[in-house]
Structures are given as structure tokens and as C-alpha cells.
UniProtKB/TrEMBL annotation:
The chain crosses the membrane at residues 12-34, 46-67. This is NAD(P)H-quinone oxidoreductase subunit L. Keywords: Membrane, NAD, NADP, Plastoquinone, Quinone, Thylakoid, Translocase, Transmembrane, Transmembrane helix, Transport. It comes from Pseudanabaena galeata UHCC 0370. It catalyses: a plastoquinone + NADH + (n+1) H(+)(in) = a plastoquinol + NAD(+) + n H(+)(out); a plastoquinone + NADPH + (n+1) H(+)(in) = a plastoquinol + NADP(+) + n H(+)(out). NDH-1 shuttles electrons from an unknown electron donor, via FMN and iron-sulfur (Fe-S) centers, to quinones in the respiratory and/or the photosynthetic chain. The immediate electron acceptor for the enzyme in this species is believed to be plastoquinone. Couples the redox reaction to proton translocation, and thus conserves the redox energy in a proton gradient. Cyanobacterial NDH-1 also plays a role in inorganic carbon-concentration. The keyword Lipid metabolism does not apply. It is an enzyme of class 7 (translocase). It is found in: Cellular thylakoid membrane; Membrane. Pfam families: NdhL (PF10716). The lineage of its organism: Bacteria, Bacillati, Cyanobacteriota, Cyanophyceae, Pseudanabaenales.
Amino acid sequence: MSLLLSAPILAAIVYAAIAGTYLLVIPLIVLFYFKARWYKTGSVERVFLCFLAFFFFPGLLLLSPFFNFRPTARQI
């Protein structure tokens, strides 16, 4: 058991977990928060949304091709 959780392997697992959280999990939550709140926000919340987009930009860039959050077309 000590061989399985040696220091280099444990460090690699921790780094992979942090990278996965930063690049996939939190940006996914941020994308859906954008979708829910984009047209209803005030000025302070809009600044917060822009901060989230700036801070999690690499993850948003990775996930954005897979989501289509454009408004639906209007009926004429």
C-alpha cells in the first residue's frame, strides 16, 4: 500500500485533481451560472461575472465549443 501512495504518485494525483477542477469543474459551473443570470444581472454582479470569465478563461475556452447558449430565434 505504501508503494501505491508514494510521494511522487500522490503529488501527481493532487496536481491532476487541482488541474481538473480548474479546467473542467469550475468553468462548467460558471458557464451554467452565465446562462442563468446573464440578462438579469446588475452592475456589481456583471463585474463579478467578468472576473470569473477572466480567472477561469482557459477552462471556459476548453468547454465553450461544446455548449450553445445563444438565445433562441424569434418567431416572425
